[in-house]
Specification:
By secondary structure, the chain is mainly α. It has 18 helices and no strands.
Length: about 425
């Protein structure tokens, strides 16, 4: 059977998704670089700033369940454009002093932006699963994961290097404004892929003009939560994202306040970690896809062992002093590189064991568990700050231990759940022919 290849339109569509995701995620990380400036302007402590950062992520994560369910029943292109605008319009307004004169108005706009960030997650991965076949999904999803990393680096860079000269508001405008025309271009150019078009049992039928008409129902949540691969993949997101929530939000402040370096130097150290994570997400996607083709169990095994191994350079990075800056940068790079293994492969794991009509909802549930730890991270860090920044950072890294162990449980069940999905798709293909 000939394999479906991406058309030029699909490639351009994926490029637009990459750009829009990059800009949206640039907005997410700006606050981590301007915590001292926000505290001074609004006269609030680190705990309040941390709570706002958590609300930004958590509200969006819980709202994503609505967007995910809708994406399994409605056209996804229109929904994607809508969530981009929901995220970026408040981001732009955050950069205008008139709209952020108080801490309350600032928090309100941050929460609105977070809703857009939460919505893009399930809609994007629902679309990707129908653009790419099983053997290419890890690579495809890695490009969107790469967009997260590039966006994080972009947001922190703008805020870290521009704030002392131009103030903290400019970065929000630079992150949000370019995405509006890109969203409009996407609305005019892109098209929804046929649902189920990349399932091996369905692709020939869909090419012949038949339609896969299955849609999700509320009763299907029972099916989603009876899938053991889903359960353990959801669970690993809780401890696995606590370190990211604390480290990415508080790391620059940690180096400024505890290591006593300039904002620019602290930003550079953060960027080295981000560059390692960015490259790791691409490399491990290809490695994970290759291992998956040998045996599906090898992909989650790679995730679990890679995360556990990455704890070592992360702990050394946090606890060593800055006397040897070159060694410090190398450790930061490899810490980011190793712990990115999960983000490179976890979305492909979920795509490969869930029905086409369930994927938007599955990714919205995953977005909640994957962002609960990350969302609580800023607030947890603010509460731990009185105990010392060094304690906060070490506390964060240790959460990767249960995350790595839970991935080993995913490896136990993934093959059976993948085979069950294939059998169901063959059954559905037979029903379409009748």
């Amino acid at each position: 059977m000939a394999k479906l290849k991406m058309s030029p339109r699909d490639i351009v569509t994926l490029s637009l998704l990459f750009i829009m995701t990059t800009l949206l995620f640039a907005d997410q990380m700006i606050m981590s670089a301007i915590i001292p400036e926000l505290s001074r302007e609004y006269g609030v402590g680190e705990t309040i700033i941390g709570v706002i950062g958590s609300a930004f992520i958590l509200v969006g994560a819980f709202m994503s369940i609505i967007f995910g369910y809708i994406s399994d029943r409605a056209p996804r292109k229109t929904l994607l454009v809508m969530v981009i605008l929901i995220g970026e319009v408040p981001c732009i307004l955050t950069g205008i002093p008139y709209f952020t004169g108080s801490i309350g108005s600032f928090a309100f706009l941050r929460i609105l932006s977070g809703i857009g960030l939460g919505g893009i997650y399930p809609v994007t991965y629902s679309i990707l699963a129908d653009y790419f076949r099983e053997e290419h999904r890890a690579t495809a999803s890695a490009w969107i994961t790469l967009a997260w990393s590039v966006g994080a680096v972009l947001g922190v860079s703008m805020a870290g290097y521009l704030t002392n000269i131009y103030g903290w508001r400019l970065s929000f405008i630079l992150a949000g404004a370019p995405n509006v025309p890109f969203a409009l271009i996407f609305a005019l150019y892109a098209r929804d892929p046929e649902r189920g078009r990349t399932e091996e049992a369905l692709e020939d039928l869909i090419q012949k003009g038949m339609a896969y008409r299955q849609v999700i129902h509320l009763r299907d949540f029972r099916i989603i939560f009876s899938n053991r691969t889903n359960i353990f993949t959801f669970l690993q997101g809780l401890p696995g994202t606590v370190p990211w929530g604390i480290l990415t939000y508080w790391m620059i402040t940690f180096f400024q306040e505890f290591r006593h370096v300039s904002k620019e130097t602290a930003t550079t150290i953060f960027l080295v970690l981000g560059i390692g994570s960015t490259l790791g997400s691409v490399v491990f996607a290809y490695v994970g896809q290759w291992l998956y083709s040998k045996n599906p169990r090898f992909m989650p095994l790679l995730c679990g062992t890679g995360i556990l191994a990455g704890i070592i350079p992360a702990m050394v990075l946090i606890n060593m002093d800055l006397s040897n800056i070159a060694a410090y940068m190398v450790l930061g790079f490899f810490a980011g590189f190793m712990v990115s293994v999960a983000s490179a492969n976890v979305k492909a794991i979920l795509m490969n064991v869930n029905r086409p009509e369930h994927r938007g909802t599955v990714f919205s549930v995953f977005n909640i568990t994957d962002n609960l730890g990350q969302g609580l991270g800023p607030a947890i860090g603010g509460l731990l700050a009185p105990l010392g920044y060094l304690f906060m950072m070490n506390f964060a890294v240790l959460w990767w231990i249960p995350c790595g162990l839970l991935f080993l449980m995913v490896a136990r069940y993934i093959r059976a759940d993948r085979d069950a999905l294939r059998s169901l798709m063959e059954q559905r293909a037979g029903e379409m022919k009748d």
